[in-house]
Amino acid sequence: MANTINQTLARQIANASTTGGGNWIRHGLYLFVVERLLLKQGYKGVSFIAELRVKVAQATVDGVVPNPVGSSCSNVQSLSNPATPNAMGAVKAFILTLLGITESTEDEFVRAFEELVGPTQLARGLVVACETYDHTTQKGKEIVLPKWSHVVQAPEEITAERAALDRGAAAA
C-alpha cells in the first residue's frame, strides 16, 4: 500500500505547478498560442486557466517589457470568488473569441467548452491576439487586462502550432 500512496503522490507532484503564482500577461501587443485550457480546483475555489505560449510580442507601454517570445504565461479567472463577478463573462468572451464566434446557445457553448477544457484539448495550437489595457478594480487596485481578438487559421496552421508546442517552441 505504501508504494501506491507514494506513486499517487509522485504523480500529483509531477503534475503540479513549480511555483505558487503564475507568469501573468504583462502590458503588450501579442499573438499567443494556446498550450492548454483547464479548470482547476484550488484552495480558493475553481479557476479557469488559459496557459499560453508567446508567439509575437510588442511593447506598448514605455518602460514595460512584454512577456518574451517563446515564454509561457497564464490568464486566470477565479470562478468561485464573489469578488470577481465578471470572471464567468470573461471566460465566455475568451472562448467565443478563440472560436471566432460572437454568440452560441447554452448547449453549444457547454459542448465546445467541454472539448476545449477537457482531455482532448481541442484549443491546443489555436492562436489568439491580445492587446492589454489598464483597469482599476472596485477596490482601487490597478490591474492589466487582456482584450482578445480572433485569429483565422487554416487546419494545417493549427497542426503546425501543435507540433511546435510538442517540440517546446512556437511555430514561425
How is this structure best described in words?
By secondary structure, the protein is of the alpha+beta class. The model has no long low-confidence stretch (mean pLDDT 88). 30% of the residues lie in helices and 31% in strands. It is built from four helices and five strands. Strand 1 and strand 2 form a beta hairpin. A five-stranded antiparallel beta sheet has the order 3-2-1-4-5. The protein has one domain. The relative contact order is 0.17.
Short structural description:
The chain is α+β, with helices and mostly antiparallel strands. It has one domain.
Enumerate how many helices there are, as a single number.
4
Q: Helical content, roughly?
A: 25-40%
Intertermini distance: 49 Å
Structural class: alpha+beta
SSE order and pairing:
Blueprint: H1 2-14, E1 29-42, E2 45-58, E3 72-78, H2 87-99, H3 106-117, E4 127-136, E5 142-150, H4 155-167
Antiparallel strand pairs: 1-2, 1-4, 2-3, 4-5
Question: What are the main properties of this structure?
Answer:
alpha+beta, 5 strands, 172 residues, 30% helix, 5-stranded antiparallel sheet, 4 helices
